[in-house]
What does this fold into?
Amino acid sequence: MSQGGGVHVIDHPLVQHKLTKLRDIRTGPKDFRELMEEIAMLMAYEVTRDIATEPVEVQTPVAVAQGRVVSGKKLAVVAILRAGLGMLGGVLRLVPAAKVGHFGVYRDPETLNPVQYYCKLPQDIGERDVIVIDPMLATGGSAAAALDYIKRRGGTSIKLLALVAAPEGIARVHKDHPEVPIFVAAVDERLNEHAYIVPGLGDAGDRLYGTR
It folds into this structure.
């Protein structure tokens, strides 16, 4: 995957249609989970558009065909817990051979700063193209912390995939990791006083798992 910072809004009609349903307060956990997986798969298609390929020959039932297969670095997907797990299945449906990492972090309710509690990455993370997934890029603290951790473990080729972002979160990631491209389905208006994205879609983890 090529590098280069910036924000890439994936405005494919199906992504926008499913995102609108995801935002709807009437969407229950079952449909919410299914929609998030579907959106993640559609977005991962765009995120991996520049993945390297090489020519090969294959024998069809009729003749030899010239084709292309993925080459170069392998992929790793790092889910920011817990809401990132809701996107993981969709990404893996597209790239089932990818290795998976997990980054556990919660936001301190008083300071709003990220507190790390768990992290496990593939041992060869430095040899892989990495996609970090989290539905909500709000303050940007969790994403920035995950990117910091991955870099300290040797990761160099990294992209960030979120469904909805606030300008404040984008600014934080750009400040700390200016070379990391951010892929989103929507850039929303702002954060409210509780650091929720407005209009957003609420607490993605709670809506995924039916908790409060």
Remarks:
- The helical segments are 13-23, 29-47, 85-94, 141-152, 167-176, 204-209.
